[in-house]
Amino acid sequence: MLNWLRRPKYGSIERRDTPAGLWTKCPKCGALITTKELERNLKVCPKCGFHHRLTAEERLAVTLDENSFEETDAHLISGDPLRFEGYPEKLAEAHEKSGNPDAAIVGFGTIEGYRTAIGALDFPFMGGSMGSVVGEKITRIAERAVEAHLPLVVFSASGGARMQEGALSLMQLAKTSAAIARLHDARLPYLSVMCDPTTGGVTASFAFLGDVILAEPGALIGFAGRRVIEQTIRRKLPDNFQAAEFCLEHGLIDMVVPRPELRATLARLLRFFGAPRVAATPPIATAGPAEATSTAVTATAGSEDV
Ligand SMILES: [Zn+2]
């Protein structure tokens, strides 16, 4: 009798015959959405509009024209210059989990036929933190954009500088900023897109240097964290402080663009700034995992320490 009373209750979702990973729970509204539907919707919750985070590969897949991406500098991997305890293991683990050698993917591609240099930070790789490799990749793609006389689009998603690389990580702020300045000197447009979250050293360098600064709805944008600021100024901050919408209202950024409109908006900006158009508009890649991996080129053999 007692056993019968203790029999576990199975909800419709928790039935044992439902394969794991089929449903995703929206962290904002709690709705259960099939992972397939969520991916079809570019990982935006169809109920409340919450923008789930994308990996760098997914970001490139939903932004670029199909098969247009040519990756550059894929071979760069981090050294351990400070012999920081546990750093090599952390790097290996992040590489294993994300499939990427570091937290940025850069290269060239087309958006609705407009050719551009492009970069995306990978938040799942150690919080998209900027160490020497991320700084070097952003710098090199900016320099390659100048050489090729093309615009640059960068998607940021980062917790800031990578503490395991100490001062070397901080130097990336100056290095990337100088590279963006060369792009500016060459009168080439740089479009910066801030995704959730864009914080610390990345906001303090290339993310805020865009000629046009865009952000996704609800993205956290800021330098220091809320608690640190509240303790310093001894004041309570508004609830939406550091949200993309708050930044727009206060003139820090230029546009907040929902993900389904982002690709067309970037194409429009590229056209406005005179980016070369190389092809008719091919169809947008879907955000499904199979398509995502086919767009990103995996790291090639042979590596180079920076
Ligand atoms: Zn939702």
Provide a descriptive summary of the structure in words.
The chain is 35% helix and 18% strand. The chain is of the alpha/beta class and 306 residues long. The chain has 2 domains: 42 residues, no CATH class; 253 residues, 2-enoyl-CoA Hydratase, Chain A, domain 1 (Alpha-Beta Complex). Strands 3, 5, 6, 7, 8, 9, 10 and 11 form an 8-stranded mixed β-sheet that branches. It has a two-stranded antiparallel ribbon with strand order 1-2. Helix 3 packs across helix 11. The longest helix has 20 residues. The termini are far apart. Bound molecules: zinc ion. The site of zinc ion (ZN) has 8 residues, from loops. Zinc ion (ZN) binds next to loops.
Topology:
Elements: H1 2-5, E1 23-25, E2 32-34, H2 35-40, H3 56-63, E3 70-72, E4 76-77, H4 87-98, E5 104-111, E6 114-121, H5 132-148, E7 152-158, H6 166-185, E8 190-199, H7 200-203, E9 212-215, E10 221-222, H8 226-233, H9 244-249, E11 255-256, H10 259-272, H11 289-295, E12 304-305
Parallel strand pairs: 4-12, 6-7, 7-8, 8-9, 8-10, 9-11
Antiparallel strand pairs: 1-2, 3-5, 5-6
This protein binds zinc ion.
